[in-house]
Amino acid sequence: MPIATVNPANGETLRRFEALDDAGIEQRLDAAATAYGQYRTTGFTERARLLNQAAGLLDEDQQDIARTMTIEMGKPVKAARAEAAKCAKAMRWYAAHAEELLADQHPSPADVADSGASRAYVHYRPLGPVLAVMPWNFPLWQVVRFAAPALMAGNVGLLKHASNVPQTAMYLEGLFRRAGFPAGCFQSLLVGSGAVEAILRDRRVAAATLTGSEPAGRSVASIAGDEVKHTVLELGGSDPYLVMRSADVARAARTAVTARVQNNGQSCIAAKRFIVHTEVYEEFAERFTVGMSHLTVGDPMQESTDVGPLASEQGRTDLEELVDDAVRQGARALCGGGRPDGLAPELERGWFYAPTVLTGITPAMRIHHEETFGPVASLYRVDGLDEAVALANDSPFGLSSNVWTRDADEARRCVRDLEAGGVFFNGMTASHPALPFGGVKRSGYGRELAGQGIRAFCNATTVWYGPEPVGH
User: Which residues lie in coiled coils (predicted)?
Assistant: First the structure.
């Protein structure tokens, strides 16, 4: 795939970039290693000062970087601004909390004595240069949720961003440089996917994190495993959205629309499978379908637009194939089901797809098991919680889940039984710097954000002192 900015709203190639050659990659790896040797010894106060500087610059740049993201991958510009604001918030959160999250951990005095020590504790140290392989769908946020904790822990970052968001990638490198981080602390590598293996195998790279597709995760995990390097993977998701009979159906249906079409439906944590109790199914289906069909599809630069284009022509083709397969096998589109009508002439070459609600889904259909990366919802009817949970778990993925219920027993059972990295009640899944984020099954392993995220790329060092005091 060429490294280029291609506007998905009209298919126009705006700018191309040359990939780094071997010499360029070598120079950047060497710079990362040199920077780490110096940056790792800085204190939390200095790291926080630099990260707060970056947050302030990002606030100033919000409108410009939002337009860049929209041009490169098609998200509505109002959503792009919100993404930039969220990134600045996360930077400030880690600047404020990193020191306490990485504070030395002390066992009980009894356990220290039982170990034969006069003193013992756990100390967190950085690992080194971390390679981040990141996708295009949240081109700022998915980088920052790695970079903010990694930099506060004393690591340095090497970003291999998706090839269709090169200007966003270069912006991020420039942002950290302008904030005053030492040269080499955060670098964007404009390379294709074929260059990742050699970079990951390089002795100067200590670990890797990847957000992306399951095949990409398998590849990075296998390479890192061969090199015995730590990884964190956040892969696909086909999140269930359970609506039980005690739910506020009107609010559940309104929220469901946003939960499905956020980021033009191209979000791993977007709700995709809507599993509704039969007693409220008809009401929910009607409200949800009306909400989906009334969304404004169009130019993502317009403030009134709810759903912009998919990020690539191939992405739209993949979505069309999933929907067409389901319809051929008996599924029914309550709305949408194809490319939208009535687009402005200048958008006719864009990669748009109409918000769609499908019903009559069966396990024989591809869409039952595969992730739909676009504004397409699968609607299911169930007779009770047992059937709902079984259907929710009938997926290779387990990223997050949403449950609408006012029944405390149902809530406890969902926490116990849903196979997911998160359970969100009476609302939609969202990430927040104070809450760990990640999945199970083929949605990956490890956690980003919160304390788990910053400690993911640290060496938990056991420090043990014998009976004879040091220094006496």
Answer: none
Cα–Cα distance, 208 to 219 (Å, whole number): 12
Strand, helix or coil for residue 269: coil
Q: Which domains does the chain have, with CATH numbers?
A: 4-235+443-464 (3.40.605.10), 239-425 (3.40.309.10)
- DSSP notation for 430-464: ---TTS-B--EETTEES-BSHHHHHHTTEEEEEEE
Q: Nearest CA to 457 among 208, 189, 289, 105? A: 208
In contact, 84 and 62? CB cutoff 8 Å: yes
- Token look-up 């005095």 returns 109
φ, ψ (nearest 5 deg) of residue 218: -60, -40
What's the token pair of residue 15? 């700018």
- Least Cα distance to 320 among 307, 310, 330 occurs for 310
Contacts of 430 by beta carbon, 8 Å cutoff, 6+ apart: 269, 424
Residue 137, CB-side half-sphere exposure with 13 Å CA sphere: 19
Q: Position of tokens 């609302």? A: 427
pLDDT (tens, 9 = 90+) of the chain, 472 residues, equals: 799 999 999 999 999 999 999 999 999 999 999 999 999 999 999 999 999 999 999 999 999 999 999 999 999 999 999 999 999 999 999 999 999 999 999 999 999 999 999 999 999 999 999 999 999 999 999 999 999 999 999 999 999 999 999 999 999 999 999 999 999 999 999 999 999 999 999 999 999 999 999 999 999 999 999 999 999 999 999 999 999 999 999 999 999 999 999 999 999 999 999 999 999 999 999 999 999 999 999 999 999 999 999 999 999 999 999 999 999 999 999 999 999 999 999 999 999 999 999 999 999 999 999 999 999 999 999 999 999 999 999 999 999 999 999 999 999 999 999 999 999 999 999 999 999 999 999 999 999 999 999 999 999 999 999 988 787 5
C-alpha 410 chain-centroid distance: 28
Alpha helices in 115-165 (DSSP H): 141-152
Identify the CA nearest to 359 among candidates 283, 273, 294.
Answer: 273
Query: In one letter, which amino acid is 113?
Result: A
CB burial class (10 A; 0-12, 13-18, 19+) of residue 339?
Answer: middle
DSSP letter for 398, please. E
- Distance in angstroms (rounded) separating the CA atoms of residues 373 and 260: 10
**Which residues does 144 contact at the CB level (< 8 Å), separation at least 6?**
87, 90, 91, 172
Cβ atoms of residues 218 and 141 within 8 Å: no
Helices 44-73 and 77-101, packing angle to 10 deg:
160
Q: How far is CA 142 from the centre of its chain?
A: 5
Tell me if residue 319 falls in helix, strand or coil: helix
**Single-letter code of the amino acid located at 72:** E
Angle at 424 between CA 90 and CA 81, to 5 degrees: 35
